[in-house]
Amino acid sequence: MSDARGLLRVTRRGVLTTGLAAGAGLVVPAFAGRAAAGELEPPTPPGSATRAGSAARTGADGVPGPAAGAGGRAEAVRAPYIARCFEWGARKPKFPPKIWDRRPIRILVHHTAGPNTGDFSVGQAHRMARGIQNFHMDRNGWLDSGQHFTISRGGHIMEGRLWSLGELNGGRRVVEGAHSPGQNVIAIGIENEGTYTGVDPTPALWNSLRATCAYICHRYGIAPSELYGHRDYRNTLCPGDRLYGMLPRLRTEVAGLLNRRLSRSEAVKASWPLLREGDTGPLVQAAQYLLRDAGTLRGNADGRFDERTVTAVTEFQTAHRADDANGLLGGESWPELARTVQAGREGDAARAVEVLARYRKTESVPDVVDHPAWQRLLGTAGSPVPAAEDPPGVLDR
Q: CDD domains, from UniProt (predicted)?
């Protein structure tokens, strides 16, 4: 969930008012009952009855919708113990979180980019959750914790944003989060304590993550193939190279808990590569040609992701109003940078195709190089990562 420095940012997208969401399935509850810090065990939000027809909604084209999830064979999926906000001492949110009368269609996996502590106690887990909430509310200006759920290195699972657990148990509606712009309603965000760039998560955390994902898939009817990393949609290192590389295993193991089997193309996703300063090789050279095609890189495409390339990427991201304009080339900027190229055309975009075709030893290139073709040339085999985004009216805070 973090940017390159392990810190969260407030989105630079325009903040939309609640009125824009009228008629879009939005429920705005009000606080009731006790309000003191440490006493957040509110009653069920108003409007708990699901609106007629909402359960029949499906996802965007090409995205498995709610009906494509676990199915009747997963009735035995056990609910893991998840500590509610009041149990770990959460503060009262600045204002009530928004609840949408729709089901999410995917799960996003994050890491906190914090220390890999050896303290696996419940107390440490609760302190970590409070620290995240304080950062999100006081530094980012958000109303509450951004993520829906949090898992400690000791395997302790906690509700992140208020009411997320109750709506999950209901299986029909979702609390709006702030864990990834564009994915805060259609995706459930799970924070995993630690930094997983060079090490694997602890067995306790992994087991809890797997159980949590299976329960979320079961309650919301999300297909186990629809588990993604934060970097699939943003320019970020999150959830770390190691944890991100374990996502095919996570999809497969979650499917097993749901009594399902995934094909390789379902378990492995065709993601955009994450390129950063210090990287070298044909993928960087192709990116440089595309940056030169876009007008932000000057000079040769030498295959070195140096300071000059970082500047060019940042300039491109700023021009395209990226939420993460940080010089990391990831899932937010690749779809805009890798424009469609017609066969036989000259220019820097076509040169990028030629570089990758030689590198992959591809004998033939499609007449039209679109996003799936770019991803194949970049070496990310598997089914495409869907591009569906949140409905209008999401505050991203």
A: PGRP
